[in-house]
Amino acid sequence: MSGDGLSGPVFRGRRRGLMFVLSSPSGAGKTTLSKRLIALNPDVVLSISATTRKPRPGEVDGQDYFFLSEKAFKQKIEAGEFYEWAKVFDHYYGTPKGPIEEALDEGRDVVFDIDWQGARVLAEAAPDDCVRVFILPPSLALLRERLTKRKQDSEEIIRGRMQRAKDEIEHWQEYDYVVLNDDFSRALEKMSEILHAERLKRVRHPWLEGFVEELMKEE
Ligand SMILES: Nc1ncnc2c1ncn2[C@@H]1O[C@H](COP(=O)(O)OP(=O)(O)OP(=O)(O)O)[C@@H](O)[C@H]1O
Ligand SMILES: Nc1nc2c(ncn2[C@@H]2O[C@H](COP(=O)(O)O)[C@@H](O)[C@H]2O)c(=O)[nH]1
């Protein structure tokens, strides 16, 4: 069951999975945080996006992203295979529908690492299921340092990502929660707290309606 404290021997109702949407400027730490969050909560599923950008060293197709040609990506847009898609840093990125719908229907929570455009689409499409978290870096200087130390991108690419950082941060007020990723462990703890509190929300437990109705008939 969902491990949310409402599923003991008496409370057997199922809940629908929630969409845990993370955005931040590139390099603030959402990939690292989401992977650690899933390691701590193995019942949570990571949404694997499709992209037309080239794989970084060590990235695995089907694990980090589905790496597609622009032609294949556009065919999938036409076929309606994406929940949402956007152009970010001159490349296409999109969230495949199939695995997400399956996971949510099974009551599993899904983590999305997507930009503000995608977060907005998901929140409009599924306002009751969506929880949006914006991750802030402690400063732009430290953001640049993280991108540099990651050793995955050229100086030119890092410059482009830094130029777009403020455009992304401008959307912070569209999010339900903001987590400052200064100390990593503290940020991770806050993410876990948000996830666990959100799982308990009444709207995520429609079975409670029937349960309370029965309870009120007693005596
Ligand atoms: N709290 C932290 N303190 C120091 N370094 C951190 C912290 N959090 C993450 N990092 C490091 O910063 C780098 C960027 O993190 P990460 O790749 O998770 O960012 P991201 O937001 O997913 O970026 P992108 O949008 O480009 O995918 C990584 O090398 C990661 O180990
Ligand atoms: N709207 C979407 N944005 C996405 C998706 N997958 C990733 N992203 C965002 O793109 C940038 C760059 O990612 P990188 O892996 O090249 O560093 C980052 O902000 C991601 O959040 C998606 O499916 N939809």
Walk me through what this model shows.
The chain is built from eight helices and nine strands. With 219 residues, it is an alpha/beta fold. The protein has a single domain, classed as P-loop containing nucleotide triphosphate hydrolases (Rossmann fold, 3-Layer(aba) Sandwich), CATH 3.40.50.300. The strands form two sheets. The chain has a five-stranded parallel β-sheet with strand order 2-7-1-8-9, with helices on both faces. A four-stranded mixed β-sheet has the order 4-3-6-5. Strand 5 and strand 6 form a beta hairpin. Helix 5 packs antiparallel against helix 6. The model is unreliable at 7-11 (pLDDT under 50). Bound molecules: adenosine-5'-triphosphate and the ligand Nc1nc2c(ncn2[C@@H]2O[C@H](COP(=O)(O)O)[C@@H](O)[C@H]2O)c(=O)[nH]1. Ligand LQESDW3C binds next to strand 5, strand 6 and helix 4.
Quick summary:
The chain has 219 residues and is of the alpha/beta class. The protein contains 8 helices and 9 strands.
List the helices and strands and how they pair.
Layout: E1 19-23, H1 30-40, E2 45-46, E3 50-51, E4 66-67, H2 70-78, E5 82-88, E6 91-96, H3 98-105, E7 110-113, H4 116-125, E8 130-136, H5 140-150, H6 155-169, E9 177-180, H7 184-199, H8 207-217
Parallel strand pairs: 1-7, 1-8, 2-7, 3-4, 8-9
Antiparallel strand pairs: 3-6, 5-6
Helix pairs in contact: 5-6
The chain binds adenosine-5'-triphosphate and the ligand Nc1nc2c(ncn2[C@@H]2O[C@H](COP(=O)(O)O)[C@@H](O)[C@H]2O)c(=O)[nH]1.
Adenosine-5'-triphosphate (ATP) is lined by residues 24, 26-32, 146, 149-150, 181, 184, 187.
